[in-house]
Amino acid sequence: MKNQKLIGPISQLITMRALPLRGALSDDQLEIIPNAGIWIKNDKIEAIGSFESLRKQVDWNYTSRKFLEGNYVALPGFIDCHTHICFGGSRAKDFTLRNAGKSYLEISKAGGGIWDTVQQTRALSVFALAKKTFDHAQRHLSEGVTTIEVKSGYGLSVSEEIKMLSAIQKTNNRTAADLIPSCLAAHALPRDFEGNKTEYIREITEKLLPIIHKEKLCNRVDAFVEQSAFNPEEVLPYFKKAKELGFDITVHADQFSTGGSKLAIEIGAASADHLEASGKEEIQRLAQSNTIGVALPGASIGLGCGFTPARQLLDQGGILAIASDWNPGSAPMGDLLTQASILATFEKLTTAEVFAGITFRAAATLKLSDRGTLTPGQLADFNLFPTSDYREILYQQGKMKPEMVWKNGKRV
Q1: What are residue 406's phi and psi, to 5 degrees?
Q2: Was domain 4-76+373-411 assigned CATH 1.10.3860.10?
Q3: In angstroms, how far is the first alpha carbon of the chain from the final one?
Q4: Are 161 and 192 in contact (CB under 8 A)?
Q5: Residue 294 has pLDDT above 90, yes or no
Q6: What is the DSSP letter of 300?
Q7: Between 68 and 61, the higher pLDDT residue
Q8: How far is the CA of 190 from the CAs of 105, 153, 161, 186, in angstroms?
Q9: Residue 9: cis peptide before it, omega within 30 degrees of 0
């Protein structure tokens, strides 16, 4: 049985290997292999290099060949390290009101906002919710996103958060993409909770975290640290308990006001996500830490606000990942490549910095060391774009999509 494949020739293979995790990148640092091939064994990359050279190395008794006609650029499979694609319903009404000048608070008081999505999500069975999540994941996969972080946070009760994480787990068993679940039970104070924020945090800390730990529903815990959600003091016991149980931590930080990124650094979070409100002090502190800053341009586009100061973070030696924040409220587009291309224009990011932000730097955010570069031993997750010049991909601002997506050595 042939369990190996040789794919090529590829006009340009962008490896993304041997690049630093931190700081600015120039495009001349990219390793570009012309007329390349990818040799796959089972679900991993066996070798990369000249297609003609690889043809002479492989054992054709065990290897099949995928001969490519035309020009292609190969990039590692994209990694979206912050999404909310497990949800019910739509918030098109919110979007329309926001564009008409209504504030977030006004929309929330009128019955919109997170609570609207919570109600629509709670109304679905775990199977219906898994079906919607699957549809979202498949669209992402078709656009080259092979690893997708997925948050709960629209259940906002012990039982409903478990339902969401179960739906994510069921979806992960069906889709070829890898789904990385995160518990975002500390997303907002549910309106039907009979108590204050401190009491709600105590309930999910004492009742929810032990269950999802025992049932292995996720290994990441998140919280929305914001004036309209929870302040650092309120969520600290939740994070401390999560760390005791062995969960990784990530934080919704500095979206509208500061304070969240400082907590993320102090608690040793893997990432601080959003950062649109971060100032000079916050960026400097983040750049000096091991906490990765995650820009979410989809939220800036959806809300009509400024972008994460990505250029500043990189220039100070920080780590930048880029994610879609795909959610029904503030970031409904869910197109990672388009959003990253737009962020590049406004923040003056090099192509290398953008590609790094949605490949190996995003993998580091999720603590995944087996993907994000095209290197022997890594998962055979990669995209083939119909062009001979890698610069065309961002130049077309997301309009050019991969013609072929490979996950674990199989075309999907």
Answers
A1: -115, 130
A2: no
A3: 21
A4: no
A5: yes
A6: H
A7: 68
A8: 15, 10, 12, 10
A9: yes
For 150, other C-beta atoms within 10 Å of its C-beta total 30
Give the β-pairing of 73-76 and 382-385: antiparallel
Q: Which of 240, 164, 258 is nearest to 202 (CA)?
A: 240
Token pair 């032990």 is found at 210
pLDDT, mean of residues 176-181: 98
CATH architecture of 78-365: Alpha-Beta Barrel (3.20)
Average pLDDT over residues 250-255: 98
What pLDDT is recorded for position 109?
80
How confident is the prediction for the chain on average, in pLDDT? 97
Count Cβ atoms within 10 A of the Cβ of residue 118 and give its class: 0-12 exposed, 13-18 middle, 19 or more buried: buried
**pLDDT for the residue numbered 146:** 99
Q: Quickly list DSSP for 217-236.
A: --SEEEEEBSTTSB-HHHHH
Poorest-pLDDT segment among 5-9, 99-103, 147-151, 194-198: 99-103
Alpha-carbon dihedral sign for residues 398, 401, 407, 412 = positive
pLDDT for 49 beyond 70:
yes
Contact 186, 203 (CB under 8 A): no
Q: Please report, for residues 122, 303, 357, the alpha-carbon distance to residue 292 in angstroms, rounded to integers and kept in the order given.
A: 32, 23, 10
Cα angle 198, 250, 331 (rounded to 5 degrees) comes to 95
> Which residue's structure tokens are 């809300």?
303
Q: At residue 69, what is the residue type?
A: E
CB contact at 8 A, 381 and 371: yes
Residue-level pLDDT at 1:
58
235-248 pLDDT, tens digit each? 999 999 999 999 99
Q: Which whole number is the average pLDDT over 378-396?
A: 98
What tens digit of pLDDT does each residue of 310-342 get?
999 999 999 999 999 999 999 999 999 999 999
Tokens of 116: 């609207």
Cα 368 to Cα 362: distance, rounded to the nearest angstrom: 9
Find the helix or strand (DSSP H, E) in which 252 lies.
strand 248-253
The CA distance from 375 to 357, in Å, is 17
Site of tokens 């780590």: 319
Q: Regarding beta strands 78-80 and 32-41, do their DSSP bridges make them parallel or antiparallel, or are they unpaired?
A: unpaired
Please state the domain extents for the chain: 4-76+373-411, 78-365
Cβ atoms of residues 52 and 67 within 8 Å? no
Half-sphere exposure (CA, 13 Å, Cβ side) for 324?
A: 27
Q: Give the Cβ contact number of residue 200 at 10 Å.
A: 22
